## 1
Amino acid sequence: MLKAFFNPRGVAVVGASTKPGKVGHDIVANLKNYGYNGGVYPINPKAKEILGLPVFKNIDQLPDEVDLAVVAVAPAMVVTSIYELAQKNIMACVVVSSGFKEVGGEGTQLEKDLAKACQETGVRIIGPNCVGIMDSFQGLNASFAAGMPNKGHIGFFSQSGAMCLAILDWSLDNAIGFSKFISLGNKVDLTETEILHLLAEDEDTRVIMGYLEAVEDGKKFMKAAAEVTRKKPVVLLKSGVTSAGAKAASSHTGALAGADAAYEAAFSQCGVLRVHTVRQLFNLAQALARQPLLAGPAMAIVTNSGGPGIIAADSVEKLGMHMAGLRPETVDELRSFLPSIASVYNPVDITGGAAAELYGRSLSITAEDPNVDGLMVILSPTATVDPREVARLICEEKTNKPIFSVLMGRHSVEESRIYCMEQGMPAYDFPEDAVQAMAGMMQYRKWLNTKPKPPDLVEGKKEVVQGIINEMRAVKRREMSETEARECFKAYGINVAQSIPAATSDEAAAAAEKLGCPVVMKIDSPAISHKSDVGGVKVGLKTPDEVARAFLEMTSRVSRLKPNAWVRGVLVQEMVQGGRETIAGVTKDPQFGHLIMFGLGGIYVEVMKDVSFKVAPITREDADQMVKSINAFPLLRGVRGEPPADMAALSDAILSLASLVTDFPEVSEADINPLLVLPRGQGAMAVDARLSLSRPNGEE
Amino acid sequence: MLKAFFNPRGVAVVGASTKPGKVGHDIVANLKNYGYNGGVYPINPKAKEILGLPVFKNIDQLPDEVDLAVVAVAPAMVVTSIYELAQKNIMACVVVSSGFKEVGGEGTQLEKDLAKACQETGVRIIGPNCVGIMDSFQGLNASFAAGMPNKGHIGFFSQSGAMCLAILDWSLDNAIGFSKFISLGNKVDLTETEILHLLAEDEDTRVIMGYLEAVEDGKKFMKAAAEVTRKKPVVLLKSGVTSAGAKAASSHTGALAGADAAYEAAFSQCGVLRVHTVRQLFNLAQALARQPLLAGPAMAIVTNSGGPGIIAADSVEKLGMHMAGLRPETVDELRSFLPSIASVYNPVDITGGAAAELYGRSLSITAEDPNVDGLMVILSPTATVDPREVARLICEEKTNKPIFSVLMGRHSVEESRIYCMEQGMPAYDFPEDAVQAMAGMMQYRKWLNTKPKPPDLVEGKKEVVQGIINEMRAVKRREMSETEARECFKAYGINVAQSIPAATSDEAAAAAEKLGCPVVMKIDSPAISHKSDVGGVKVGLKTPDEVARAFLEMTSRVSRLKPNAWVRGVLVQEMVQGGRETIAGVTKDPQFGHLIMFGLGGIYVEVMKDVSFKVAPITREDADQMVKSINAFPLLRGVRGEPPADMAALSDAILSLASLVTDFPEVSEADINPLLVLPRGQGAMAVDARLSLSRPNGEE
C-alpha cells in the first residue's frame, strides 16, 4: 500500500482541468513540477492536452502502469470513478473532491456510497475532502497545495486540510523538512490508524507527527500506536478538547469528539506524545527528527548571558527535568580558559564578551561530562560574537547527546538559525521552546524504558455475570440491583461487604442478628440508583430492634417519594469500620470504550476532581499507576503516622473491574463507591455497587 | 528626571573611544546615527576627534547644555566621574561599565561606593553593568546596542542586558515598536520602581513591559505598580521561579530572589500582568499597545478553515473566556452571503474557497453583534485567497472592539503579517498565541473593574502585644509560648479557645472541672513548637481524673524526650466540637514582607498544597478572595447538605492576622493551626497558636 500511494509507477488525475487555478489543474502541475519520475495521466472527456501532457478521455483508456489515482471530479461522480478504477486494477486513490459528510444532507449519503464502493472493490482511499499527499523523497506531489515540503524525516498527517496548508507554508521558511505529507480528509477508508502503520514502515520517516480532531476507532488506534511508538515517536496535536472546541469539531467534520479524559489516557497508554499547541508540535517533532534521544533528565546549559540562562533553568525544573551537577573536573577545565567573571557552574555563562571559539570549547567539555544527559546552547546577540560562527561550532560538535540550540532574537540571528536547521540541529527562538521539546523527548525516553506487556486479566466466574445479564436482557432491564452488582464484582474477586436481603422488618432484624450490629441498611430497588437522595441508606443501626424500625420507616418513605419504583426490600449489610473511602468506576467512551476511573471517595472526587483514568484492559502496572497518580496519593501512603493503605488491594480491585468490563462489553457504567481500603495487608472492600448495561444492539 | 534621561539638551560620553568595536565608540556612533538633535560630547583625555565630533579632555571642560552622561570608563574610575558630573550639574547618568556587584569581591565594594556617590551628589544613575537607554521618538540611542528599536508604544525595561539585546533584535524583524528601551543593570540607584513611574508619565508609552529577576524593594514596588497599572498595563516576565532558576539568579546578579508565591501574590495585588515566557511577553504587550481593551470575555472567531478554528475555540475556553453566542440577526446576515457549506455560527467558518471580500464582510457583521466582545480572524493559506488582501481588510475594519489576527504559516503570509503589525494590528503565527494575549487583556480589564481601596486594618490592643514583645526582647527570646501567642491573637479580635495553664496535676484537674470535660491538654513550653511530635497533645480527656493522669504522663514523657526544654506545665483547653479545620499563617518574604497564607487544615495543606497567599496589609476583599480561591472552597460553602462554614469569620481572622503583623513588623512567623471554622453565624476559633519574632536589628 505504501508503494502504491507513494511510489506509484504512474498517477492518473481524474477530473484534470485545463484552467490554471482549478484544483484539477494544480494537481497535474504539482505532479509535473517536483521531480516525480513516473507517468502523469490527466483524464478529461473534452481536453486534448494539459501542461503538455496528453489527456485521456476516461479511466478505461489508461495504460497499465498506473498505480495511483487522484480524483477531483464533482462529488456525485466520485463513486462511479472508484468502480472504474477498480476495473483497471488501480487500487490506491486520493479523493480531493469535497461535498461529502462535511456538508451534511446529501453529502452524508454520498459518503456512505463511497464507503460501500471501497468495500466492494477493495480500492484504498485517502479522503475525500482532502488536500492530497506528498512525498519529498520521490518528488511526488499529488495534491493541490501551493508548494512542496523540504526533504526531511518527519512524516506528517492531518485531519484538517487547512492545517496541512498552514504547516507546509510555515515549514518552507523554517528549514523544516518532511518525508511524507498526508491530508486525511473525511477518512472514509484510510484513517490515522492505517497511516500510522504506513509511516512506521517508511524508511524516510523518523518521527510521525499529526493533527487530529477525533480518532475513528479508538481500540484499533491504540493497538497500532502501541506498536508504532516502539519504533518511532508519534507526536499528536488533538483538538476539540473543551466543550467549545468539541462543538466546533462536530460542526466541522461531523466527527464525534470523545471526552478528553479518554484521549489523555489512551495516548499515554500507547506512548503517543501529546502536544497542545501547533508550536509545540513543531518544537518537539524537529528535535525528535534531528537529535539523538535523551538518556536521562539532567540538562546542562551553555549561554553567553545570564537572563536567558535563568529562564531556561526555570523551565527545565518546571517541566520535570533537572539541571545537571557538573563534575569538579568539568568545572576546573571550564575555569581554565573562560573569563574570570564567567560562571563555570550550570548554567555555564561564558559571558557576553566571549568569542565564538569559547562556545565550542565549553560545549564540548560540558557534553563530555557523564553527569549531563542533554545540552542547551543559548546565544544572545552581542557585538563581540558572530552568531554564524557559533552556529557552525554547535553544528560541528560531535557528541551522542542531544543538543538544543536557542538563538535569541531574529534580525541578526535568523540566518544562523536557519543554518542550524539545515544542518540538522534543532534551533529555537526562545529557551522555553527548546525546554518543552526536551521534556517531550524525555517523555518518549520513559516510554521506551517501559516494557510492552499484554493486559493483565483476572479470571472471573463469567457464568455468574452472564446469568445475571441474561435475566436482565430477558426483561429489558438495564440497571442492576445492588445485590446483582455485588454478585458480579464478587465473581471477579472483589471483596464485598457481607449483606443479607430482607423483605420484611422481621427478616431485617434477623439479618442484623446474624451479621452482628452495628449494621447498615439500604433500600434494594433496581429503579433507585441514588439511594441516599430518597433516604434509602441508614448507617450505624445498633440493635435488631432499631433495624426493624428503620425498615418500616425507610420503605414507607421510599414508597412515598418513588411510588412507581419496584422495591424488593432492603439490604442489611455489615458495617465496615475504619479504612479510607475510595472510588473505582467505569464509563464508556464512544471512541475508546471502557474507561476505568479511580479516586479518593467523597469530596476528593466531587470537589477536587482528583481522579485518574485508563482505558481498559489494563496491566497491573497501569492499575498501580492509577492509584499513585492521584494528587491525594500521599494520604494512601500514610501521613502523620497513619498506617499506609492496602494499595495492592486497590490495584487488585481496579484490575478486576477492568477485567469484568473487558469480558462483558455490554457493561456501560459501573461504580464501586465507596471502595473502602483498609490498612496494608487487610484488603479493600466494596461497600456499595452499581452496574448498568448498554442498550442491546438495534434497540432505541 | 524623564526629561534629563530621555530628552537631554546634550549627552556626554565619559570614556569615549576612537576604536570601532569598543563600547565607548559604539555609544558615540549610536548617539550620532539615529537622529538625536542635541549635542554629543565625547570625553577622552587623549583623542582629538571621534566620528567627526570634537573631544573634550575631561568632564570639567563640558559646556553647560549637557543633561545626560553615559559613563563607559573602567569600573574603578566610575565613582570619580560621578562626583565630577555632579560638579557640572549633570544629574542624570547611565553607567554601562561592568565590573561591579555582578563580579563579586572588589566589585561589590565599588558598587557600594557608587551608591554612596549617588546619595551624596544627588546624581541619578541607571546601571551600572547595563546596555544603556533608547528613545525611539527622540532618536536617542545612548547605548552600545547594535540597532535602534522601531517607533512604537511599548516602554520596555530589563534587568538583563542580554534580554535587552535579544528583544531588540527580535523586534526589528517583527515590526514591533518601542517608545523607550531601558537596560536596568545592577540597579544601584534607579530600580524598576522609579522606571515604572517614569514610563507612567511618558506620553509615548501605552504599555509597560519588563523583564525582572528580582524586585529590589517589594513594598515600594507594589505601591508604584498599584498606581501605574490604573493608568497603563504593566506586563512582566519574572524569572528565577524554581529552585534551579533561583540558583542561577543569585549567581548572576547577586540578587536574592524571593519565593515565587510572594511574587505571584504581589503582582496580582497590584495589577501587574505576569507572563511566563518571552513569547507571551511579546504576545500580550503588542495587543495591549495596539488594540482597544476587551469589554468582556465573549470571543468570536472568523476563519477560513475548521481545524485552526477548533484549536482557537479550545484555547479560548481553556484560558477562562468563552465563545460568544451570535445573535440570530447576525447568523441570518452571515448566511445571506456566505457559501452554503460555511458555518455561520461561532467560529464563523467562511470556508477555504471564500474570497478575501467575504472576510471583510463577515468580520464587520460579527463585530457589530453586541454579544461579541473581541474578535479573532484566522487565515490559513489557500489557493483562492490573497493574504495581502485579507490583511488590508482586517486593518481597515472600523470597530471599537479588539481584533487579533492570526496568519497561519509563514512563507506566503509573512509579508501580510508584517503589514498588519505596521498598521497597528497585532498579528500572530498561531491561534494559541492570540488567545493567550486575549486572556491577558481580559485579566487587565478585570483589574480595571476593581476599585482601588486602602487596606482594611483591624484596630488591635497594641499595648498587649507590645508588652509581650518587650518581655521577650528583654530575655532575648524569639518564640512565643502558646499562651502569649493566644493573647496576641485575642488582642486583635480573634476568638481563641478557652484555656487555663496548669503547673501541677491538681491544677490541671481543677482546670478541666472549670472548663467542663471533655478537654484538650497541651504541653506549654516556648522551646517546643511542634508539640505532637513529642507526645505533647492529648485530646478528648473525659474526666478530671483522666486529666490528672495525662498531666503526669505527658510531662514525664516530654522531659525524657526534651530534657533541656523549659516546661512551664500544660494548657488545659476547652474542646471545640464540630467545625472544619483551616489554617491561617504568616511568613516573611525578603522582598515583600509579610505574606499571609490561608488553607484548609491538615492534609489539604500538607498533601494537596491547596493554599492561597496575599502580601499584607490586605483589604477585606483580599481576605474574602483568599478564602474563595483555594481549590477546596466548595467544602466551606457546603457540600452534600452540610451547612456552609462561617466564611465571614474566616475573613475576619485573616484580616486580624494581617493587621497584627502590619502593626508589628518584627513578627517573622505566625500560625493559627487549626483555625476551626463553625457553621455560618457561629464564628471561627483559634485552637492552636504560634508566633515568633525576627532577630532584633544588629543581632546575629
## 2
Amino acid sequence: MTAEIWDVIIVGAGLSGLSAAHLLRKRNAKLKMLILEGKDRVGGRTVTTEIPAANGVDRWDFGGQWVGSTQTHILELIKELGLETFPQFNIGKKVHHTGGPGAKVRTYRTSIPALSPLVLLDLTQLLWKIDRLCATVCVQDPWRTPNAVELDSMTLHSYIKQHAWTAELKEEMGLCSRSVFGMEPSQMSFLFFLMYAAAAGGVLPLLESTPGSAQELKIKGGTQQLSQCLAERVGWKNVRLGSAVTAIWQDAEWARVTTTTNTFLCRAVIVTCPPHLAAKIHYQPALPSQREFLTQNMPVGHMIKFIITYQTAFWKEKGFSGEIVAGSSSGCPFCVTFDATSPSGNAALVGFIAGEQASQWSSEEGGERREAVLSSLVKYLGCEAASFIHYEEKDWAKEDYSGGCPVNVMAPGLLTYYHPSLRKACGRIHWAGTETATLWCGYMSGAVQAGQRAAVEVLAELCPMALTQEEQQAVEHSLTVKDAVKQTPSSKHTYPSTTKAVVVATLAIGAVLLLAHNQNALLKVKSYLTNVFSTTTQNIFLL
Amino acid sequence: MTAEIWDVIIVGAGLSGLSAAHLLRKRNAKLKMLILEGKDRVGGRTVTTEIPAANGVDRWDFGGQWVGSTQTHILELIKELGLETFPQFNIGKKVHHTGGPGAKVRTYRTSIPALSPLVLLDLTQLLWKIDRLCATVCVQDPWRTPNAVELDSMTLHSYIKQHAWTAELKEEMGLCSRSVFGMEPSQMSFLFFLMYAAAAGGVLPLLESTPGSAQELKIKGGTQQLSQCLAERVGWKNVRLGSAVTAIWQDAEWARVTTTTNTFLCRAVIVTCPPHLAAKIHYQPALPSQREFLTQNMPVGHMIKFIITYQTAFWKEKGFSGEIVAGSSSGCPFCVTFDATSPSGNAALVGFIAGEQASQWSSEEGGERREAVLSSLVKYLGCEAASFIHYEEKDWAKEDYSGGCPVNVMAPGLLTYYHPSLRKACGRIHWAGTETATLWCGYMSGAVQAGQRAAVEVLAELCPMALTQEEQQAVEHSLTVKDAVKQTPSSKHTYPSTTKAVVVATLAIGAVLLLAHNQNALLKVKSYLTNVFSTTTQNIFLL
C-alpha cells in the first residue's frame, strides 16, 4: 500500500478542525491539507436537520445551537461566512418545578427564578462565593490557582453540599450542572467547574439567555452551516468523510496517519476529536503517560435533545416564554426547555434530557420517552402540548464518533497533576477541540479558538513566515496565557460591582431574615429582593 | 483474508485470561480457544525478571508480588500449579517519616506506627468510622449501599478532610492511597474506596503484611510463573503473543475479533484487559453508552517499582525490617519499601514511587530517580544503602498494553450511575480482569476469580452441561452475589470485635487526653495505647 503524502492532516471535521484548516489555508494556500472525519458529515457536535413543521418543513439544530455576544471567535467566523444571528426568545412566564413531584409548579416573569426568599438568599450567597473563587482561577494554567490542589480534590457536589444551606438550592445546582454539562455535580472536579465558568466570564453567563450569556443568540439556518461553509472554503476535496483515524505513528521524518483503509504521511497532525475519542487512537511511540492519564479521566456528558414542532406557539399565546426548568425530583424527564420557533415562524420547543436522567431514559423505548416528555409539557404548558406536528430527538451518546455531548469534563485530581498535557504538542501531533480552549471552553466559540491556536502552532513549525510577529511570539510564550489574562479580567472587572450589590443585598436580607419569623416577613423579604434585583442592570438569577 | 474459526477468544494473557482459559479447558477439553495478547509475554501486570544479585543472579517480581491467606482463589491456583509461598519478612525496626523534610525520622518495632498519641487517636476514630461504612457496602451492587449516591459523590480526599482531625493523619492517608492504588485520594470516589476495602475484608487488610492481609506472602520463583504454568496447561499453541486486539464486531452468528494482522471468528469473547484498554477497542455494534461512560472514567494508577540488590541485608544486621513509609512531604521519592531478600538468600529491597510522585518522577532521567531513591535509603537505613549491586526499576505507565498499575479505580459518580455495566455481558462479549472481581478486587486473586466467573458465563452459553447445577443457578442468579454475601461477612464478623476494642480504646484515650495537657500525660497515653493494642490479636495499625 503506497501512502498519500500531505503537509497537514486534521483529525475531525467539526468546527475546531475546519477552523484550523481555514486559517491554514488563508495563511498559506500552498499547504496540502487533508481532513479525516469518521462520520458521514461535517459538523461534529453540531448538526442541523429538516423536520416537518407548520409550514411544511424547517431546519433545527440537534447539537450546539447558541452563541453569545461575548464569544468573539465564533462571532467573527459567523460574520466572515456571511451568516446571521437572532436572539433566543425569552419573554413571558417561565415555569419552575423543583422540590418533588407533588411540589407546586411555580411561574415567574422576572429573571429571578420562582424560589422562596430563603432559597434565593442561599443562591445569592453561594453564587457570590463561587464567583469570588472564579475570579482567582488561572484558566490557562489552572494548577496555578490559589489553593488549586484542594479545589481540585473535591467534586462540585461536595462544594455545593458544604456551602448551600437549603435542599432546594442543592437540587437547583444539580439542574444547572445537568443543563450545562450533561453531567451530575458528583462527576466533575470543583476546580474544573471554576475554570470552565471563568473561561465564560463567570457562572451566570453559563446559565442565562441574556446579553453576553451562553444562550443569547441562535444562527439562522442552523449551526452546521458553519462547518459546511468552512468545508466549502477549504475545499470539499480535502475533506474525507467516513474515514475514522485508528492510528498515528511518528518517526523522525513523518507522521503516519492510518484509517481502516488508508495510510497517509504528513509533516503535522491536528487532533480535534473529544478527549475520550482521541484516547482510542493508537499512538506510536506511545504518548507521554501524563497525556494518557488525562484523557482516561475526562468523561463526556450525556444529553438527549428533542425538538417538537407545533401548528402555533400556543405557549406564547398563553403568556409563557417556553422556558421550563424542572429538577430531578419533579418526575419530569427533561431538565430544561426553551422556545425554538424558527426565524420563518415555525413554532417549536426544544428541550434536553441530561446527566443521570439521560442515562436512565436512554435505555427506555423511544415511544415511552416521548410520552413522558409530552406528558410533562401538558402538565406545565397545558393540553395543547399534546397536539404536536412532529417529535424528533437525538441521543448524543448513541452518535458514532461522538459518544456524548456537549463536552468532556475533568474528574477530580486531573487539573493539578495532568493538565499541562492538555494542549502540549506531542512531536508532530497538536491538540485542538473545544476542551482545549481558554475562552468559552466547551462551546462552539472555544472550538474555533482551539482550532486556530493549533493552526498557528503548525504554521510556526512548517512556515513561520506566514505568522505575524505577535503570533510567533505567542507560540513561543503561549498565546493563550495572554488571551486568558487579557480577557478573563472582564469577568473580574464586571463581577466586583455586581458582587458588591449582592453582598449588600445578602447582608440586608440576612438582617431581615434574622428578625423575620413569620410568613408576612418572608413575603416582605421577597418583595424587597425583587426590588433590589430589578434595579440591577444584569439579570443575575435567571437559571 | 479468510478468518480462523474458534469457539472462544480471550483478549489478554494475564492471570484473568489464563484462569478463564484453564477453567474452560478443564470443563470441556474439546473447546477450541485462543488467547490473544498484545505484549510479547504472558502475565499482564505480573512480570518476574532476573537481575544481578549477591550470588550471581536471582529473580524478582516487578509487578504484582504479594498474596494473602484469605485470598482463596489465588491460593487454590498456587496449590494446583504446585508452587510455594513464603512470608514477607517484617521483623525489626520500621522507619516512618512524615510531617515535612525536616521532621524527625521515627522508628518503631511494634505494629503501631510511630505517630503521636493524638494522631494515633485520630487514626483510630477514622478507621472505626470507615470500617463501619465498609460493613454496609454491597460489593456486588454498590449502588444498593445505604446512602450510595452521597458516598459516591465525594472523593476519598473529601471524606478524609472532613473526618480526620490532624494534618499528620491526612498525610498518612495520602500515603496509604498511593501505596495501595498508585493514586491520590482526590482521584477516586469514596464509595469506590469502601467497595474496594470491603472486597478485601476491610481497610487494614489492604495495608498490612500480617496474616490475612494483602502483603502477607510471596511466591517462590515469582508470580509470573502462575501465568506461565497456566499457559503450559492451556497449551502455548493457543496463546498468540504480540497480537493486540483492535476491534470486535458482532453479528447474529459470530463475534469477529481483529488484530492488526488477523481476523478470527468465534462464538464467545472474554475481554480481560484493564478498563482503560478495553475502552480503546473498536466495538461494532457500539457498546451500550453506559458501558462506554464507565470505562471512560476508570483511571489506572501509576507506580514505578524498584528492586535494589545488595551483598548483604545490612538493614537486618542493623535491626531494621526494611520497611520504610515516607509521606509526600518528606522529600523522599518513594512511599514505601520492604525487604525483598529472595528465598535463596539474595539480599534486596523493593520499593514503590506512586501516585503524584510517580507522575513527577516519571519524567525525570532514570539516573536522577535512582540517585534520589538511594539518597533517601542512605538517610533512613545508613550509608551502606549506597553500596548496591544492582538497581532495576519498572515504570508501569510506560509498559505497552498496561499503561499503569496496579489497578483502575472509579472516579466519583460512576458506581451509582454506570456500575451495572461493569460485569454485564454485551452480546457475545464477557468481561473479566481483576477490576470486575467481588473478592480482592484489584489483586491477583481477584483476577483469578473474575476469569473463572467469565468462563462459567461462557460455558453456560456454549456447553451448559459442563457446569454444576450450582454454577448454572449462579449464572442465572449471579454467582458473585452469593460469593459476596458468603465471604464478605467474614469482615463483618471480624470487625465488630476489633471495632469494639477500638471504640473502648478511643473512649478511654479520649478521656485521658481531655485530662492531659502536658507531655507526661501524652507519654502515658502512648504507653497505654501500646498496651491496649499489643494485647489485640490483630495488628491494627501497621501501615
